[in-house]
Design brief:
The chain has 336 residues and is an alpha+beta fold. The chain folds into 3 domains: 69 residues, no CATH class; 98 residues; 150 residues, 2-Layer Sandwich (Alpha-Beta Plaits), CATH 3.30.70. The chain is 64% helix and 10% strand. It contains 11 helices and 5 strands; from the N terminus they run αααααααβααββαβαβ.
């Protein structure tokens, strides 16, 4: 028992954890149960806070959020590995600077020796000739050492490049959603912090995208085809975002695009292009050749200040999608 609970305490928490899963309408899978048990226990404050924030937005939890919470707050891998990445980046940068400095210093020393040969002439010709020969010999040795250093630097650079490639793979695991390739909430929080540091009053346009009738599709055709469909839609969504935008998977069938310093009217145009692009997608089963139903998305466009926080934004955008006077799917709704 992780927290040294008594048998009676553990049984009580187990019962409450299962009841909580029923309340959240989640299956009693190992991951779901572990998250629910930690939430009931209450001592994992970061997990409790994350769940309560999500419940304040959606009133319920989905499997996608629970799995992310399990990875981040129970396995505890993200924060540690994130720090490691930063430290290793610093080490690599310092190593490269040091090697470059050493190389520049040696080159400068060689140039000084070569330039001073002409100044060594004096009345004692044999002495001067000996000195010149000695300096030339030293210069030759130094140049040989320089060549060896350059080879070592080349090897170090190869190792650094290889390590950077490995770090990039780790970054993908930490900051990207494995199914869709879009950014996850951890990456979103990191970008928001950077934008706040850059400009506390930065205005950001946001597009919340919800796949229409996705639950019904998954129930009819199964989760595997559902995942394929989500991946295809995510690719279409990200194709409309340039380098300044941030496409994020925020829920099971929900995506979010953050566009810093973009007007609401421009964001609405982008949202309409996304809606039309997804509407034109056609899905065919690779196994059976059966044509799958056409899928659509509903989108809400809003604008917010980075200081307001992402949960505030998502709550407002979801309310836009659920307004009683905006019935139906396959539409773009902009904040008034």
């Amino acid at each position: 028992m992780k927290y040294h609970d008594t048998v009676t305490q553990a049984q009580q928490k187990m019962t409450l954890a299962v009841a909580k899963l029923t309340e959240w309408k989640l299956a009693t899978s190992p991951i779901n149960y572990a998250v629910s048990y930690e939430y009931i226990d209450g001592r994992n404050s970061a997990l409790v806070k994350a769940i309560e924030q999500e419940l304040s937005i959606k009133k319920t939890l989905d499997g996608f959020f629970v799995e992310q919470a399990y990875q981040q707050y129970i396995l505890g891998q993200s924060a540690f590995r994130d720090e490691i990445i930063g430290d290793m980046d610093d080490v690599l940068a310092n190593m490269e600077k040091g090697c470059q400095y050493s190389s520049n210093s040696v080159n400068q020393f060689i140039r000084k020796l070569d330039n001073n040969f002409v100044n060594l002439k004096s009345a004692d010709k044999p002495t001067v000739e000996l000195a010149v020969n000695n300096i030339k010999h030293a210069s030759t040795e130094l140049k040989t050492q320089q060549q060896a250093l350059l080879k070592q630097l080349a090897m170090s650079q190869q190792q650094a490049n290889s390590l950077r490639n490995e770090l990039e793979e780790v970054r993908k695991e930490i900051f990207l959603d494995p199914l869709t390739g879009l950014y996850n909430r951890k990456a979103m929080a990191k970008h928001l912090d950077a934008w706040l540091t850059e400009d506390p009053n930065k205005e950001i346009a946001a597009i919340v995208i919800n796949v229409d009738q996705f639950s019904q599709f998954s129930q009819k055709f199964g989760p595997l085809l559902g995942n394929v469909l989500l991946s295809k839609i995510a690719q279409k969504v990200s194709s409309y975002v340039d380098d300044s935008g941030l496409p994020v998977r925020t829920g099971g069938e929900e995506f979010l695009i953050l566009l810093p310093e973009v007007e609401t009217s421009v964001a609405s145009e982008i949202a309409e292009k996304i809606r039309q692009g997804v509407e034109k997608l056609r899905f065919v089963s690779s196994k059976s050749g059966m044509r799958l139903p056409k899928m659509t998305v509903s989108l809400a466009v809003n604008r917010f200040n980075a200081q307001q926080g992402i949960n505030h934004l998502i709550t407002k955008a979801r309310r836009l999608l659920n307004q009683p006077d905006d019935q139906g799917n396959n539409q773009v709704i902009s904040a008034r």
